[in-house]
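Q: What changes when calcium ion is included in the input?
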Amino acid sequence: MIKKISVMVVFVSIALANNWFNMNPAVHPSARQDGHLVYDSESDRVVLFGGRTTSGASYETWSYDLNNNIWEQMSDAPMTMSFHALVYDSAYDRVIAFYGGVTLAYNFNTDTWEDMIPSPAPAANWGAMMAYDVESSKLILFGGGGGSGGNYFSYRETWTYDYQTNTWTLLDTIGPPCREYGSMVYDSESDLIVLFGGEYDGNQGYLDDTWVYDYNTNTWLEKTPTQHPSARREHGMAYDSERDSVVLYGGDSGPYETWEYDLNTDAWVQITTADLPGASDNVGLTFDSESKRVVLFGGQYLATYFDETWIYPDQEVGIEEYAKVKMRKLTIYPNPFVKSCKISENRSQVEIFDVSGRLINKISGEIWNGEDLNGNIVKSGVYFLKIKGNERIKVIKL
Ligand SMILES: [Ca+2]
Ligand SMILES: [Ca+2]
Ligand SMILES: [Ca+2]
Ligand SMILES: [Ca+2]
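A: The predicted holo structure follows.
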């Protein structure tokens, strides 16, 4: 008699530690560093623009729908940008890109780019930082690099840009020490912009300082956290409004670190995660407030560019939502199976139980040959796989 075991996947949510989860979308942008991400909250889409691929700076615009794990290529921008700054202006529902005095605006709803050609504009070229103060409806830009021929320096200016009047206005020229390649995000709960790190004055060393900017009073203030990430540049930051936490990831040439900053208590905490993206620096990072997840795309480690899409934190989600995300990754082949099945997720330990909860077998690796602990082929029917991998436990109904 031929035994057939059909496979259904059912997930049981177990307490999970914070982790990164690889979404593995079927279609995605090509590998790149510095492909900045922003979240268009009106459209519930993450927008990626530009970056540097192996063939140079990119014109490309992509959108990502986390709910359906789908990337879609949109219209190219009128010019390439990398080492640019990118932010979402929620008042006008526009994505604003800035590099080297050029200001571009993108409307996802109509999939159209405009070259705004404002005058004056900040003089910064590469590595300026932008964030958007939602309470004040103001885009804020700080710093950036300039110079040429080995004579490089950084800017110390704070600017705001208004899309409707197409006007850049200089707000402050003191603020934090000059820098490029830091990161800046807006903490909506505290109504303050948070800046961390970067590269000082045209590559005169890396910074490890934490600053906040209040547009309402036009004031910069240096924070004094007792611990904080080490000095670095080219890290990514995003503000998780669900958990009121600034998430920092990576940095140049290999700090594969995840940190979270609570502005209210002025505390940075390093988060140890079981899984990590392939890239360490120049990732795209933003927060999808509808899905309540930080989204990461691409980045680099030394000379290698990445095309991975990850989300964070992978925890404390409802069973349904967890299943929706996880089921995309996990496949069991063939289904139903007769002799053996291959479990797509390669985890260290898989335990197989029958419906009464009795342990049938333990396997390491990806293949279950349908045998029990004594080497006998099991009866047809329903079995559960318990996959232990790092912090995550999944129970799968076979
Ligand atoms: Ca929109
Ligand atoms: Ca404000
Ligand atoms: Ca806060
Ligand atoms: Ca979403």
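Observations recorded in class: The longest helix spans residues 319-327.
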